[in-house]
Amino acid sequence: MFDDIKKAIQDAKKGKKMATFHFQILLNAARVRVVPPKVFCEQIGVPPSYATEVNKMLAVDDLMGGGGRRII
Questions:
Q1: What is the pTM of this model?
Q2: In Å, what is the CA distance from 56 to each residue of 2, 18, 25, 45?
Q3: Which pLDDT belongs to residue 71?
Q4: What whole-number distance in Å separates Cα of residue 69 and Cα of residue 49?
Q5: Coil, strand or helix: which one is 54?
Q6: Furthest-apart CA pair in the chain: how many Å?
Q7: Residue range 60-66: average pLDDT?
Q8: Distance CA 33, CA 23 (A)
Q9: CA distance 72 to 50
Q10: Which residue, among 33, 17, 56, has the nearest Cα to 5 in the 3D structure?
């Protein structure tokens, strides 16, 4: 999972990296949820401060019904 997310973010077009980061968290929410946010950030190579964004996107997933539901 980590490598796939990291690659998706790296391959994103300029100006779309943060959106891709958020989208990947939503797509993989069920698996991301079991990893501490700072560890997740470390594994995908983003600053630990992004842990706040991870928590926000997991909260969005909760509002959408949880479990990394299919959003597309």
A1: 0.86
A2: 19, 13, 10, 18
A3: 59
A4: 26
A5: helix
A6: 31
A7: 86
A8: 14
A9: 24
A10: 17
**Amino acid (one-letter) located at 23:** F
Q: Confirm if 48 and 38 have CB atoms less than 8 A apart.
A: yes
C-alpha span between 22 and 71 (Å, rounded): 13
Contacts of residue 2, defined as CB under 8 A and 6 or more positions apart, other chains included, come to: 40, 43, 44
Q: What is the pLDDT of residues 38-58, one digit of tens each?
A: 999 999 999 999 999 999 999
CB half-sphere exposure, 46, CA atoms < 13 A: 25
Question: pLDDT per residue over 12-30, tens digit each?
Answer: 999 999 999 999 999 999 9
Q: Which amino acid is at 57?
A: M
Distance, CA of 38 to chain centre = 12
